[in-house]
């Protein structure tokens, strides 16, 4: 069968989609790039904001409508399938199957059952189920995601993720290292370790890190990072998303002392107002956050921080909003993802009356976007003239000699790839920066620097 996956949401969903694609390919199905070619289309969904769900539902309805004209299997996987359950069958007529956020390993069997004539199959699993999840990868990439922590126990007041992804479960360290070794053997150079609150790794359940073995660290995440760095061939390690409570002395020391760890952390702040942070139940204040990033930057000069901000949380006043603006200015983020608050059913914040109307949310959104652009532009202009190390990703779609890559700080760099340089995806090269935009650097390829640790 020819299949297509549409993925919404976070990196965790991108990772789950890769697993599904690898499992389907292993039993002979073929991934295709367009809906017209596909015999089966699976929509991989996100519930974090109402809009993300509306988009996925709209897409599913359109595809099911198309079933009138041709043979097509349509399924929904991921967070929205988990949240809405079998009620989706009432709102999306003709849908063939739904599969929960920890049950995607069963997609090949579900497709086979639909092909054999069954319809409206639901496989949502038990809450907190972990055993059935395969962690398989596609070949041919030089950068890979590795899920190390499932679920989330934090329960921030606005967030649906703990409901749809279940309680936290840290995968055994040995299993993760075996996965990274396999990836490295297949040519992967960069791994990104994934968890919703990734610094909680090893806190909710034992992970089997041998504490009697000599190590520079005693906490689970620094120890895991140390072990991943010891895998031959892995040149870069990232982990996401962070939380200030996880920026312990040991973690900061790991960032300082383990050269493979990249000079970047995505550390969502959500708000710069202590009052709103408390209402959000984030578990830290403005000063704690600023302290965490200051310590990371002392450990690694030039360390890049990116962030998420929610605007229009219930009760957010102009002063609260200005506090967020001033925090962003003080923190000097390389990038900030700005989200308009969306009440999620069943979360504590959904009981609070909304106080910021759509127009005001839009206004605050625009202001933060302009602030962030100015900040990103200033940070990147200061880099003009510097020579930076770039992991080459590959040619851009429009112009094959124009290549894109990323710095250790996760900034995108565009450069001309000269034929004589023979740069291949996954190579580390040196690029001298000549031009800057808020989210992109442009430069000239100096010399390929070969596969040396960054
Ligand atoms: N686990 C990550 C975030 C996952 S959700 C972390 O805690 O860092 C990604 C982002 O979506 C969050 O950081 C937050 O900024 C935003 N978000 C989550 N729930 C939201 C809601 N109800 N409305 C608007 N934005 C939300
Ligand atoms: Fe949601 Fe908070 Fe967990 Fe992030 S840490 S997934 S924002 S509950
Ligand atoms: Fe969305 Fe689920 Fe990720 S709700 S943000 S896809 S964990």
List keywords for this structure.
single chain, 454 residues, alpha/beta, Rossmann fold, OB fold (Dihydrolipoamide Acetyltransferase, E2P), five-stranded mixed barrel, 32% helix, 22% strand, globular, binds S-adenosyl-L-homocysteine, binds iron/sulfur cluster, binds FE3-S4 cluster
Can you tell me about this structure?
With 454 residues, the protein is an alpha/beta fold. Among the domains are: 2-123, Methylthiotransferase, N-terminal domain (Rossmann fold, 3-Layer(aba) Sandwich); 387-446, OB fold (Dihydrolipoamide Acetyltransferase, E2P) (Beta Barrel), CATH 2.40.50.140. Helix content is 32%, strand content 22%. It has 13 helices and 19 strands. The chain has helices at 11-26, 50-66, 79-84, 88-91, 107-115, 161-165, 173-185, 220-229, 249-257, 274-279, 286-299, 318-331, 358-381; strands at 2-7, 30-31, 40-45, 73-78, 97-99, 121-123, 143-147, 149-150, 169-170, 190-194, 236-240, 264-266, 304-311, 335-340, 387-395, 402-407, 412-416, 428-436, 440-448. The strands form five sheets. The chain has a six-stranded parallel β-sheet with strand order 2-1-3-4-5-6, with helices on both faces. Helix 12 (318-331) runs parallel beside helix 13 (358-381). It is globular. The protein starts with a strand and ends in a 6-residue tail after the last strand. The relative contact order is 0.08. The protein binds S-adenosyl-L-homocysteine, iron/sulfur cluster and FE3-S4 cluster (F3S). Iron/sulfur cluster (SF4) is lined by residues 152, 154-156, 159, 161-162, 196-197.
């Amino acid at each position: 069968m020819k299949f297509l996956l549409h993925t919404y949401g976070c990196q965790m969903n991108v990772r789950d989609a890769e697993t599904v694609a690898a499992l389907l390919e292993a039993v002979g199905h073929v991934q295709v790039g367009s809906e017209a070619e596909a015999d089966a289309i699976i929509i991989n969904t996100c519930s974090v904001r109402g809009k993300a769900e509306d988009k996925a539902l709209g897409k599913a309805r359109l595809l099911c409508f198309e079933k009138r004209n041709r043979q097509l299997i349509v399924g929904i996987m991921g967070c929205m399938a988990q949240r809405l359950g079998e009620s989706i069958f009432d709102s999306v007529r003709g849908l063939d199957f739904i599969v929960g956020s920890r049950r995607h390993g069963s997609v090949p069997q579900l497709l086979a059952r639909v092909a054999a004539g069954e319809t409206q199959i639901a496989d949502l699993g038990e809450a907190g189920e972990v055993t059935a999840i395969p962690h398989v990868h596609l070949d041919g990439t030089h950068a890979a995601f590795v899920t190390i922590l499932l679920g989330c126990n934090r329960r921030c007041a606005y967030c649906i993720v703990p409901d749809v992804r279940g309680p936290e479960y840290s995968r055994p360290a040995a299993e993760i290292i075996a996965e990274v070794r396999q990836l490295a053997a297949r040519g992967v150079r960069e791994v990104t370790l994934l968890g919703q609150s990734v610094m909680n790794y090893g806190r909710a359940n034992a992970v089997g890190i041998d504490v009697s073995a000599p190590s520079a660290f005693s906490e689970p995440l620094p120890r895991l990072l140390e072990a991943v760095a010891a895998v031959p061939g892995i040149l870069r390690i990232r982990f996401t998303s962070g939380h200030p409570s996880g920026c312990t002395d040991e973690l900061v020391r790991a960032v300082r002392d383990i050269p493979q760890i990249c000079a970047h952390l995505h550390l969502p702040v959500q708000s710069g107002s202590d009052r709103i942070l408390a209402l959000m139940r984030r578990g830290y204040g403005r000063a704690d956050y600023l302290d965490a990033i200051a310590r990371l930057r002392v450990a690694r000069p030039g360390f890049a921080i990116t962030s998420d901000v929610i605007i229009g949380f219930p009760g957010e006043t102009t002063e609260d909003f200005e506090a967020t603006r001033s925090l962003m200015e003080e923190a000097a983020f390389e990038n900030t993802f700005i989200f308009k608050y969306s009440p999620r059913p069943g979360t504590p914040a959904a009981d609070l009356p909304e106080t910021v109307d759509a127009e005001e949310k839009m206004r605050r959104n625009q202001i933060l976007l302009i602030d962030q652009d100015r900040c990103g532009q200033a940070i990147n202009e200061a880099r003009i003239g510097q020579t930076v190390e770039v992991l080459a990703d590959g040619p851009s779609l429009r112009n094959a000699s124009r290549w894109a890559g990323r710095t250790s700080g996760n900034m995108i760099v565009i450069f001309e790839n000269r034929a004589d340089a023979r740069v291949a995806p996954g190579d580390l090269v040196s690029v001298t920066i000549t031009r800057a935009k808020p989210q992109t650097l442009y430069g000239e390829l100096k010399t390929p620097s070969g596969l040396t640790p960054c």
